Description:
The chain has about 80 residues and is mainly alpha-helical.
Amino acid sequence: MAIKFTIGKKIGAGFAVLIILTTLAFIFTVVTLKDSKSKTDTVVGQLAPSVAELKELNLLIERSVTDVTQWMFNSSSSDIVLEKI
């Protein structure tokens, strides 16, 4: 009982295999993209607040440096002597 594959059946089977492989590749691509998107959203959700906090900390440090510099230039020698006592 040999199955005879004619040219038409061989071409049809080839196209069927091609369509199945293309569909599988499409499904794997969609799954990978969804996974990548969820990971990206998680990372962005964690880093964006951190960046805002770092910018606020940088601004606070700059203000502190400015205040200390002004205090140093505005303090008199008597203030320094009194503080040592």
